[in-house]
Amino acid sequence: MENKLETIKNENGEYSVYLLTCKDTPETVYVGITNSNYVIQRLFKHFEESVNNTSKNEEKHKWVLDNWRNIEMTILESGIKNSEEARIKEAQYVFKYKKLEKKVLNMTYVALRCFDSDGNLYKDYASYAEAAKDFDVLPSRIMQCVTSNLKLLKEYTFIKWTKDSPEKIEVNKHNKNTISTPVLQYSSDGYFIKEWKTALDACQKLFIDRSRMSKCLKDFSKTAKDFHFLYKGRTIDTYIYPYDKIKVIMYDLDGNELGKFKSVKACAQVLIDEGLTNANISNVRSSITKISKQNKPYLNRIFTVY
Question: Which label site among 44, 61, 232, 278 has the fewest CB atoms less than 10 Å from its CB?
Fold first, then answer.
């Protein structure tokens, strides 16, 4: 038999996600992750943990001890590069089996349901970490939205997921904030293109994900489909400049001037052409703009904007 469990290894510190089942309790499952050299080592570790009762998950310990001889371990996914990614994957599989109405013995993760500004179902998330990664915020920010009934980015509402969670919620019209505020669209160089009636209208017409649009409206340096967006009447944060007004002087680390540029984009293109970075021009441009305010080097260069 090929790829016996005893031979499956995690190479170079990588992680695997596994599933524990038992033929005598077909509706009960446990999902875990391991970076043990041989994956099967984690199976024997479960037995040791259950004997010593080393965690508060007493139901899992009892299941392991009662069914030890018949527990089977299946690798769900392997080759995962780091623990953060592995834990997100683990949570996704936990959520998958919960939705299949299995008795999942994991106690770690809380699944979430997210609603948009109109109260419609936006997306389900397997954990706080997965939602935080999607919206580019800290997990504690998502947790605060759940526990304090706050809106993320003044738009998204989160609740804890259950099999009875609604697919639509009522929205307090007085708390919709910027939902009906017009949105201004700019080119990658900061030139005004168009005014949209709402952010949702721009998303639908330009095929932009709503979470990405929210990030752009929060930080003018971010782009979606290579466009910048700004709520009408808002001012750009002090460390962000309108790109059509920026000029750049580039210096080496000894303070010698290496060139003047009529725009951040032109300066970024030179750095790319010289092979100093493999990043795309949008990311390089944003880095130059931000780092110039911090008076720190970037790619062994110093930048001054004016």
Answer: 278
Do residues 151 and 195 share a domain?
no
Pairing of strands 248-251, 71-80: unpaired
Report how far residue 73's alpha carbon sits from residue 168's, in angstroms, rounded to the nearest whole number: 38
15-22 β-sheet, strand order: 71-80, 15-22, 28-34, 103-104
pLDDT digits (tens, 9 = 90+) for 235-290: 554 334 444 456 788 988 888 889 988 888 888 899 999 999 998 887 888 788 77
Higher pLDDT, 199 or 106: 106
Q: And the tokens for 122?
A: 């936006």
pLDDT category at 292 given cuts 50, 70, 90 is confident
Phi, psi torsion values for 70, nearest 5 degrees: -115, 5
Q: Is residue 10, in this structure, part of any structural domain at all?
A: yes
Distance, in Å, from the CA atom of 285 to the CA atom of 218, rounded to the nearest integer, reads: 18
147 part of a folded domain: yes
Q: Report in angstroms the alpha-carbon separations of 68 from 4, 53, 60.
A: 19, 15, 11
Residue 254: inside a domain: yes
User: pTM surpassing 0.70?
Assistant: no
Residue 258: which domain range? 246-305
3-state secondary structure of 305: strand
In terms of domains, do 133 and 61 share one? no
Is pLDDT at 115 greater than 90 in this prediction? Answer: yes
Tell me, yes or no, whether 160 lies in a domain.
Answer: yes
- Quote the number of domains for the chain: 4
